[in-house]
From TrEMBL:
<protein>
    <submittedName>
        <fullName>Pyridine nucleotide-disulfide oxidoreductase</fullName>
        <ecNumber>1.8.1.9</ecNumber>
    </submittedName>
</protein>
<keyword id="KW-0285">Flavoprotein</keyword>
<dbReference type="InterPro" id="IPR023753">
    <property type="entry name" value="FAD/NAD-binding_dom"/>
</dbReference>
<dbReference type="InterPro" id="IPR036188">
    <property type="entry name" value="FAD/NAD-bd_sf"/>
</dbReference>
<feature type="domain" description="FAD/NAD(P)-binding">
    <location>
        <begin position="3"/>
        <end position="268"/>
    </location>
</feature>
<dbReference type="InterPro" id="IPR050097">
    <property type="entry name" value="Ferredoxin-NADP_redctase_2"/>
</dbReference>
<keyword id="KW-0560">Oxidoreductase</keyword>
<dbReference type="GO" id="GO:0004791">
    <property type="term" value="F:thioredoxin-disulfide reductase (NADPH) activity"/>
</dbReference>
<dbReference type="Pfam" id="PF07992">
    <property type="entry name" value="Pyr_redox_2"/>
</dbReference>
Length: 283
């Protein structure tokens, strides 16, 4: 087993969960990108103990705190979390990591899915270029990029694909490697039979490709954790932050409103302590 506990998400909930599990003596790994929303918040006035603090300052305090403990932090996205009965397998694309328990604290994706996106997930559509780009070596790929990370992902894909097309819904200036075609249009819907075969853009233009990537700030719970129970687009948990899957916990925005830092930190503590207790009872 690689770790006692793997936490997916490096925001307030994930950091709080990792801190509390580490204090209980568990070997912890946190996987996730930094919280851009928190970093960019100009003023937070309702976090207990701080009458007014910048989001970046508060977040740096969280990170400084967790780094005092033997918690490993991996700055990247994952492909999926698989419940294997007595343990969990975390798919990084090029390798798998295992843990006795897992906590999902990824936050939520505020944007709507492209029509057909959910239907064709893992059927020609992926959310992680680092994970799946190798499947399209020498093939044509279309990537829809909603954030800065999408630029890096497109450049990575382009090293393998025969042709890479970057669909830029935000229509902002992007600097990509030579050979990548940029289309400043919004995606409308995916079409296909058994898998995604084409992407229709806002003006009706059709882009046919062998594979499609949608790069945004977070993936939807159903695609991240197969078989986890969802209620009103959020992962359903009880008061102990337990999901319907044994050993799997969730906390923060991904389990529901209010979308507040105070709540995320508190739920992270509950999830971290209960995950640690679960690990101890199942040695």
């Amino acid at each position: 087993m690689d770790y006692d506990l793997i936490i997916i998400g490096f925001g307030p909930a994930g950091i709080s969960a990792g801190l509390n599990a580490s204090i209980r003596g568990k070997k912890v790994l946190i996987i996730g990108k930094k919280s851009k929303a928190l970093e960019k918040s100009p003023s937070i006035k309702n976090y207990l103990g701080f009458s007014d603090i910048k989001g970046l300052d508060l977040y740096n305090n969280f990170i400084h705190h967790i780094k005092k403990y033997p918690v490993k932090i991996l700055d990247r996205k994952i492909k999926a979390v698989y419940a294997m009965g007595e343990y969990f397998s975390i798919d990084l694309g090029e390798k798998m990591l295992t843990s006795k328990a897992c906590i999902i604290a990824t936050g939520i994706d505020m944007g709507k899915s492209i029509e057909g996106e959910d239907e064709f997930f893992a059927k020609g559509i992926s959310y992680c270029a680092t994970c799946d780009a190798s499947l399209y070596k020498g093939k044509k790929v279309v990537l829809v990029g909603y954030n800065e990370e999408a630029i890096e992902e497109a450049n990575f894909i382009n090293k393998m694909a025969s042709q890479t097309i970057y669909v830029n819904p935000n229509k902002n200036s992007v600097k990509l490697d030579d050979g990548i075609k940029v289309i400043n249009k919004k995606p409308k819907k995916f079409l296909g039979a058994l898998k995604a075969e084409s992407l229709i853009l806002e003006d009706g233009e059709e882009l046919k490709a062998d594979g499609f990537f949608v790069i945004k700030n977070s993936s939807k719970p159903k695609s991240l954790v197969p078989s986890v129970k969802i209620e009103n687009t959020h992962i359903k948990v009880d008061l102990d932050m337990k999901t319907n899957i044994k050993g799997l916990f969730a906390c923060g925005d991904i389990v529901g409103t209010p979308y507040q830092i105070n709540k995320a930190v508190g739920q992270g503590q509950i999830a971290g302590l209960n995950a640690a207790s679960y690990i101890s009872k199942n040695k």
